[in-house]
Task: structure prediction
Amino acid sequence: MARIYNFSAGPSMLPEVVLLKAQQEMLDWQGSGMSVMEMSHRGKEFMAIAESMKNDFVELLAIPANYKVLFLQGGATAQFAMIPQNILNGKAKACYANTGAWSTGAIKEAGKYCEVGIAASSEQAGFTTIPDFADWVVDDEAAYLHYTSNETIHGVEFNDVPDAKGLPLVCDMSSNILSRPVDVSRYGLIYAGTQKNMGPSGVTVVIVREDLVGLAPKTVPSVFNYEQQAKSDSMLNTPATYNWYLLGLVLQWLKGEGGVAEIEQRNIRKADKLYQAIDQSSLYSNPVVKECRSRMNIPFVLADANLDKEFLSLAEKNGLGSLKGHRSVGGMRASIYNAMPEAGVDALIAFMAEFERTH
Ligand SMILES: Cc1ncc(COP(=O)(O)O)c(C=O)c1O
Result:
């Protein structure tokens, strides 16, 4: 069996050692005689799995003690609604930066619950940049300021933290969490789906400062209520047990690799070399302003779009999968999350050079 280099934007590549460990433990988890899938979520075996997963997550991101960490379902998409439901705190307005398709999605959903003030937008620029922080308009009457630290579709990433002017700062880190160190204390709330840098899909991590827990009106359903989820250790209903376990294996792998600081260095190296290859070629180009280019998702177009089909099919034949760009922007996109080995990026660069030479 030959494994490919999978450049999918998510669900995406997982470290091979994680898959092998899961395979090895599939029928019998550490002498328990059970697969993790078969365990009661209240049993001592699963409780041990859940506890070490959570501890590793807290350790890897150095999450301060005054934050609750929740492992929920419904994806980041559910958080688009749960955030206003939980932390509007009686206010009528929230501020959002619009830097791409995912911010736009968050804004649309929030609009069902409150007035949305657009603090900044790069829509006019085709979502290829991040508006200068000095120009952001943050209303001090708003409940919070929301932004998306990495726009998965457009390949735009924040390198700095915006100034929330005293409001709780809320961030969708779905596609760059654990790829670089984060000062969690600057945030009111961080959320991310697991299916890019943390494991398979099915779990959404929410890191929420304690003062933002317990603000939801009584009408908010229990499973959507941060306070009730925090009180029950995210087990208000049966959690996605096997996905928690796989998330735990990915976190152990990351710790073994040297943690977030080390993986960041690799991510910088991988992204730098791919951007360099794109910038030096006359066939490929990336439209994003250099300072805002994502280390995780690297979109590029071919000078002649008629070559797209052949590029993709030849790439597949060379073991380079899922390079098609998002349907809304077209072209190509290489998603190179933590689990993408440097050798995968090297293979892509070599393939691109050969394709350019022969076309
Ligand atoms: C930045 C970002 N936010 C939100 C989402 C939506 O996540 P989910 O499908 O887990 O709800 C995605 C999915 O790709 C994403 O990349």
Summary: The mean pLDDT is 97. The radius of gyration is 21 Å. The pocket of pyridoxal-5'-phosphate is lined by residues 10, 75-77, 102, 148, 152, 172, 174-175, 193 (CB under 6 Å). The longest strand covers residues 115-121.
